[in-house]
Amino acid sequence: SEFIDEKYTLSGNVEVNSKNLFLSANNVEVSSSDSSIIATGNIKFQDDSYLITSDFLSASRDGDNLIATATNAKYQDYSAGLRGANGFTEVINRTPSSVILNNSSYSLCPVNKNDWLIDADKIELNLEKNRGLANNATIRFYGVPIFYTPKYSWVLSGRGSGFLTPSYSTYNESVKGESHYSLRTPYYFN
What we know:
Layout lengths: L1 E3 L2 E11 L4 E10 L4 E11 L3 E13 L2 E13 L8 E9 L3 E9 L9 E11 L4 E11 L2 E12 L6 E2 L3 E7 L4 E7 L2 E2 L2
Antiparallel strand pairs: 1-2, 2-3, 3-4, 4-5, 5-6, 6-7, 7-8, 8-9, 9-10, 10-11, 12-15, 13-14
């Protein structure tokens, strides 16, 4: 470890702990002047709900809030248990109220067993509104693209209002000899 110009430089199996987060890396530079952290090599960053692994991470404080940015990162939302979201992203920005993923994949399948996933240019997970929004999203099933949409929105946890699967049916009234058609599109209110 070294201390030069208000910066602590730590190298070799570094672990930084606080009551709210854990960071391990090969090299960590902590600036006491602006409360920022730069970590490189074999990074594992964990806060109250997300685990992020990467080779580069920077973090800074905005008041009491920590804002972390990692590049070429794998992530997992372990707060939801085994069904938490996971994937890979070129850039992840984590704030207390949101997670923004750029050029990323997103899946609720078990880690490394992503039968289906969403590939998108940008995914915003708004934790306060409990909504996810993907831009230029392609839904893939076993690696095969099955659906593209310019915008896709979903509820992050629990249920949300929205249209359910429509149904279509035909029937004949034998007395009148007429055919009738029925189309139902149910809407779920939460």
